[in-house]
Structures are given as C-alpha cells and as structure tokens.
Design a protein that fits this description.
The chain has helices spanning 7-22, 33-47, 51-62, 69-86, 89-102, 106-121, 125-137, 143-156, 159-175, 182-194, 198-211, 215-224, 236-245, 252-264, 268-281, 290-320, 325-336, 340-353, 359-372, 378-385, 393-403. It is mainly α. Helix 2 runs antiparallel to helix 3, helix 7 (125-137) packs antiparallel against helix 8 and helix 17 runs parallel beside helix 19 (359-372).
Length: 406
Amino acid sequence: MMTKTNWPALSRIALGLLAAACLSTAAAQGLRPEVGKPLQQASELLKAGKAKEALARVHEAERVGNRTAAENLTIDRMKAAAAQRAGDSATAAQALQAVYDKVGGAEKGQIAEQLAATYAQQRNNAKAAEWLNKAVQAGNNSASVRQMQSYLQAASGDYAAIAKEAGAAVAAAEKAGRRPEEGDLLRLADAQQRTSNTNGYVNTLEKLVFNYPKKDYWSAYLGRLPRRTNFSDRLSLDVMRLRLATGTLSKTDDYMEMAQLSLQAGLPAEAQRIIAQGYKSGALGTGPEAPRQQRLRSLADKKDAEQKASIEHQVSEAEASKAGDDLVRIGYTLVTRGQVDEGITLIKKGIAKGGLKYPEDAKLRLGMAQLQSGKGRAAATQTLRSVKGNDGVADIARLWLVAGAP
C-alpha cells in the first residue's frame, strides 16, 4: 500500500520517466544552433546533477526569437526535467502542461502521469487526481499510475475506493489467466484490513500465498486463518503443521503447544520430531522452562515406545471396526511413524469402509500422506483438490499444494 512515507519513491518514478524522455532531445535534428547548443548544455548539466544551472541554459534557449514548434516542444521538455530536478515544481507543472497540449497518443498519458506526480508532490491532491484521470483516459494504466491512485485515496482515507480499484485489477488478471500483480494484492489486503473486511482480507492473503509464497505472507495468512468465520478448532494442529512446514513456527510456546496437540491426537512420533526441531532451532532446551520442556520430551519418548509396542493390535482393532474412522486414524499414525505406504493403504481402506465422522478430513490425511510417499505429486494433487467444506479443511488441503510435504 502506498502512503505518504514512501512518496519519494513515487516522485523518482515520475522523474525517471521524464528524464528518459528528454535528456537526448537537445541533439535532435531541426534545432537551430542558438537553441540546440544551450539545450545540449542543459542536458549535460542535468546528467551531472546541476539542475539549477541546467534550468538557466533552458531559459537562454527561450530567449531566442522566432522559435519553431519543434524548438518550443524541446524547450518545454527540457524545462520540465530541469525544473523538476531543481525542486521548482510550479515551473515543472507549467512546462509539462505545455508539453501535454502539444503531444498526442500514448505520450499524452505519460505526460499526464508526470503532471499528477508533480501536483501530488505539492500536496495538491485535487489537481493530482484530475491529471491521473486524464492519464487513464489517455490509456495509461501503468503500475505507477495505480500506485499514485492508491496514494491519493489513502491520503483521503478512501480505503473502500482502494479496495474496489485493486479488487477489479486482481479480478481482471485472474479472468485473463494471469497472475495478479503483487502490488495490487497488497493494496487490496491493506484496504480490506482497514475496512474490517476480515474474510476478504484472509482471502487476499491466500492469493498472496498462492502467487507469491513468501514467508511474511505465510505468517500473516496462517495467523489469520483460524479467525475465519466457521473455521473449526479441530484443525488447530493442521495450521501449526503448515506453520512448521513454511518456517513460520518459531516461538518456544508454539513448539510446546504443537507437540502437546500431537500427543493429544495420539501421534507421539510427530511430537518427537516437533520437539527435536525445537531443540535444534534453540527455541527449546534453554532458560528457566528447560526442565518442563525436557519432561515433555521424555513423555513423547514414552508414548512413542508404548505405541510402537501396541500398533499391530491397534491396526487389527481398526480393521474390525464397523466404521472407517479408526482405520484413517491408525493409517495416518503409521504415516507419522515413517510407514507411509502402509499408512496410505489403511487410510484408503477407511475411506472405502465409510461411516466417517469427518470424511473430508480423511481425504486431507490421504493427500498429506501421498505428498510424503515419494511416488509423485499427481495423486496427492488430485486428492487434495477434491477436499470440500467451509470449515477450513478445504483451505488446509489447498495450502499443502503450495507448502509441499508435511
């Protein structure tokens, strides 16, 4: 989202466009020496960073009589660039206006954008908005124009307008089969957050994760996902699994909570891995809580040994059960213990048996297991894409397609 604090970057965008358009014009054919020479000198002075001296040379060219239309246009271009760099925004705006009146086509839109930037630099937001509209009308819908629109909308506090404009840009890109611009997604997310559109904000964060899976976006999205309307508490461990997989689980309390949730789910082998990673990262094993952390580690080791001794019996009981829930549960237990293929077989049996309390959860576990099977992503992708529901399970399934194997 563009704010007043990053306005200098926006000014540099407009100035770069302006300088690129005019620094070479002094050497253009058709200019008389008495006009071309001082303009060429102005060009060299601008390159050397001497804007005020360059502006003086432009004024020298202006004093030549009987100027042609080409000479006047070149003078106005150079005056605009020199005045802008010299900090004389009023003169720059006057010169740009003169250029705008003399050019056509796509260049008209570019000059209008530069005028908008000049007026915004003066904090004349009304004039800036006027020229931005002219830029768009002339066919200039560049990223920098959209940034300036957001800057002006933010300055006025009109975040609803930002959300509408950025949302339209994102929707247009998706309709055309293109990846939305990262800047458009960020502007949309910021506007949605400022207007308390929580579900919309989370949806946009998901688009950022899918299109630009950066750690910061993962952290923001996974932090907000559990607050989404109708998101089920039973998926808390799944959210933490994604945080672990994406490197966004880092706090000591998070490692402890995740390990405890895994133990409560009857997955001591998973708890052992979480605790081991916590020790490796330095989040566990130090400080006044180290003894408590060691006790949790010992408990995980004990539960793992007990499970290892009884796992075959648990499998037999699950096979004999009327419903498939136990088969799915024991199947995923085997997956966490490294017996991935055997676990996949049991999960599939459980799904086929039916009578499941949470059938979509079962498909999620199957897809997660298939991601770890080492037999290609095709089956996992098909399974995870088939997961439905509005309680968060489908969201978790989609995210594993981006995050990779648990």
